[in-house]
């Protein structure tokens, strides 16, 4: 039994100290990691950090009883299995509890083997924990998400639970929280993991190009359509299409998207026949779409089509325990691609990072880490640099595409200045052939002659 249990976590709640100690000893002896609570209120506090695989609670307790605790737990941790402990006189109540979603109940007094068997069954049959082989099989689906937060763990359990249902998912969160990482994680743990994952930022597509980008177009469909274009729906066929910032989608296109989702087919611009599609939709937004509906900015029928399951990704300010983890992750990335020998932050600097408001969330944190590393002259980043970075970057950060374009333009200009417009020499320094280098110059409207003396 100890081997089978592994390191599974169990939270036991009972206001009888003797019974609480007895159950804890039996579970600990079987190899489980156990936390105890003598009241429902204390249990809710422990749940913030413990992340159990199973909750065991007495039915009759002073203050918050077992069913009140179950209701509160079900609201915040809908996938967590619960076992209720009951006396003979309350068996009818326990039976009613199972109808409401309680996994099982145990009648006091119960023997040790009955307890261990019921606990093992609850954990084995629970969809978010599974057995050891299943856990190992998809242990890498979430590795890109750096977190030890209880809120994030709750969210990831929900994401795992709905991944295989193929229903549409709406991720609601602030900008910079990692919506695409969560969408990709859901794709990787779903039955579609071997298919493509295509991400598109709806806010970055011009209104006139929406239909062409998502549905595709035929050659000659409009002026400038010199060749056939495969749309993103077709590109994602058999996989997942992630629509980021779906709240910024033009209202005129929303009805066309709704029809495509209902009929499971798209018609490229200029085509006469529709093309069947098999795509799972995950969308994301920072806007309150329920408020946008009465204002005529978002279609109600499309909202309910996209929002079959809603996942709320917490902002960085609600998961501050993740900040040191994220900081170390970004530092490792910087060290891997540069010669900077920065080992970390001073205690005061880390305290400033943990306490900062982070309106730009994880994206802003990454920007601050990169800035402080770039300006640091020693192995330890002082608090003064952190204060300066936070003061200089209070909120809005450029998009990745904009930041990359600005870097490319400045880099190419610096190369041309250094080589006085010698394209051959500049291309060699950049590690690109002349043809590729000229394309980059054309992209940024840079003329080599302008840099020649």
From TrEMBL:
GO terms for molecular function: ATP binding; sequence-specific DNA binding. Residues 9-123 form the Response regulatory domain. InterPro entries: AAA+_ATPase (IPR003593), AAA_lid_NorR (IPR058031), CheY-like_superfamily (IPR011006), Homeodomain-like_sf (IPR009057), HTH_Fis (IPR002197), P-loop_NTPase (IPR027417), Sig_transdc_resp-reg_receiver (IPR001789), Sigma_54_int (IPR002078). The modification 4-aspartylphosphate is found at residue 58. One of its GO terms (biological process) is phosphorelay signal transduction system. Keywords: ATP-binding, DNA-binding, Nucleotide-binding, Phosphoprotein, Transcription, Transcription regulation, Two-component regulatory system. Pfam families: AAA_lid_14, HTH_8, Response_reg, Sigma54_activat. This is Sigma 54-interacting transcriptional regulator. The lineage of its organism: Bacteria, Pseudomonadati, Pseudomonadota, Gammaproteobacteria, Alteromonadales.
């Amino acid at each position: 039994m100890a081997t089978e249990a592994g390191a599974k976590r169990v939270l036991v709640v009972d206001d009888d100290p003797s019974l609480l100690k007895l159950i804890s000893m039996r579970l600990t002896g079987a190899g489980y990691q156990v936390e105890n609570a003598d009241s429902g209120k204390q249990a809710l506090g422990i749940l913030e950090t413990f992340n159990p695989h199973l909750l065991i609670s007495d039915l009759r307790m002073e203050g918050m009883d077992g069913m009140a605790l179950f209701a509160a737990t079900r609201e915040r941790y809908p996938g967590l299995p619960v076992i209720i402990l009951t006396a003979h006189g309350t068996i009818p109540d326990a039976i009613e509890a199972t109808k409401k979603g309680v996994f099982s109940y145990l009648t006091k007094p119960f023997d040790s083997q009955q307890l261990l068997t019921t606990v093992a069954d609850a954990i084995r049959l629970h969809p978010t924990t599974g057995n050891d082989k299943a856990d190992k099989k998809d242990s890498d689906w979430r590795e890109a998400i750096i977190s030890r937060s209880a809120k994030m763990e709750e969210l990831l359990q929900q994401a795992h639970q709905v991944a295989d249902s193929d229903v549409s998912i709406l991720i609601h969160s602030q900008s910079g929280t990692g919506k695409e990482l969560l969408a990709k994680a859901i794709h990787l743990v779903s039955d579609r993991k071997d298919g493509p994952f295509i991400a598109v930022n709806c806010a970055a597509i011009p209104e006139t190009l929406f239909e062409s980008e998502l549905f595709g177009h035929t050659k000659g469909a409009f002026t400038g359509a010199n060749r056939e274009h495969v749309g993103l729906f077709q590109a994602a066929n058999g996989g997942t299409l992630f629509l980021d910032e779906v709240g910024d989608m033009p209202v005129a296109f929303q009805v066309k998207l709704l029809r495509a989702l209902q009929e499971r087919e798209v018609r490229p611009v200029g085509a006469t026949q529709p093309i069947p599609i098999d795509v799972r939709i995950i969308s994301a937004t920072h806007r309150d779409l329920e408020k946008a509906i009465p204002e005529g900015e978002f279609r109600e029928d499309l909202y309910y089509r996209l929002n079959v399951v809603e996942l709320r990704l917490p902002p960085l300010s609600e998961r501050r325990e993740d900040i040191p983890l994220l900081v170390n992750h970004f530092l490792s990335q910087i060290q891997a691609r540069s010669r900077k020998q920065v080992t970390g932050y001073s205690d005061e600097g880390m305290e400033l990072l943990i306490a900062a408001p982070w309106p730009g969330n994880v994206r802003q944190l990454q920007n601050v880490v990169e800035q402080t590393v770039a300006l640091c002259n020693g192995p330890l980043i002082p608090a003064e640099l952190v204060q300066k970075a936070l003061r200089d970057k209070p909120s809005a950060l450029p998009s990745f595409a904009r930041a990359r374009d600005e870097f490319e333009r400045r880099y190419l200009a610096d190369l041309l200045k250094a080589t006085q417009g010698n394209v051959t020499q500049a291309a060699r320094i950049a590690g690109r052939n002349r043809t590729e280098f000229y394309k980059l110059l054309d992209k940024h409207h840079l003329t080599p002659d302008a840099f020649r003396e």
